[in-house]
Specification:
Elements (H helix, E strand, L loop, with lengths): L1 E5 L3 H8 L6 E3 L13 H20 L4 E11 L5 E2 L5 H11 L3 E12 L5 E13 L4 H10 L19 E5 L2 H5 L3 H9 L10
Parallel strand pairs: 1-2, 1-3
Antiparallel strand pairs: 3-4, 3-5, 5-6, 6-7
Length: 197
């Protein structure tokens, strides 16, 4: 069955390649605004589902598996940290996260289209503790341009900045796609046999 990743994120694309599955890439076009009374968990779950549904409607009756995901960063005070719009916002985020624990939450949806439609969703949370990096390191990292397309303003996999001291939970979840949980859910669609946990 054809697999479609509804994400333009190169990090998600690279992670999905690690499962050895061929897939096509589309960029979902949805309104990512958060509702006034919407909890952060409801918000990230809704976005993942809406991204999958936005692609599914374009497929009409053809059979495919659409995979979509959304990742958010929740700081130590319970506030949402999105993608920084500029250097000043990236600086504020990185200082706020420095030497503290925060949460990275990714929700994913797998939606089968065609004559046997079905959807499976999951949500994975990882506790992340940042190291005590210096202001100078923050400035060098911002100058690299890496923070600007990432929730929370950082990439755990950045080999120069190395912002994270330790994690509790899934590493790939922090990058943008919880592979173990995704693989287990994909096995429900007979894509391959995943070990049960």
């Amino acid at each position: 069955m054809r697999i479609i990743l509804a994400s333009s994120s190169p990090r998600r694309q690279q992670l999905l390649r690690e499962l050895g599955l061929p897939f096509a890439v589309v960029k979902p076009d949805i309104d990512e605004s958060r509702g006034d009374d919407e909890s952060l968990l409801d918000y990230v779950k809704r976005l993942s589902l809406e991204k999958a549904e936005a692609e599914a409607v374009t497929l009409e009756d053809s059979a495919a598996l659409v995979i979509a995901a959304d990742t958010i960063v929740i700081d130590h005070e319970g506030d949402l940290l999105g993608k920084p719009a500029d250097a000043a916002e990236a600086r504020r985020m990185l200082r706020r996260l420095r030497n503290r624990e925060h949460a990275v939450v990714t929700a994913f949806t797998i939606l089968r289209t065609g004559d046997r439609p079905r959807a499976i969703s999951g949500c994975v949370r990882t506790a992340v503790t940042m190291r005590d990096y210096s202001d100078e390191e923050i400035e060098t990292y911002i100058a690299s341009g890496d923070p600007f397309d990432k929730a929370g303003g950082y990439a755990i996999q950045n080999k120069s900045f190395k912002p994270v001291a330790r994690i509790e939970g899934s590493y790939s979840n922090v990058v943008g796609l919880p592979l173990d949980e995704l693989q287990q859910s994909l096995s429900e669609f007979d894509v391959f046999s995943a070990p049960r946990v």
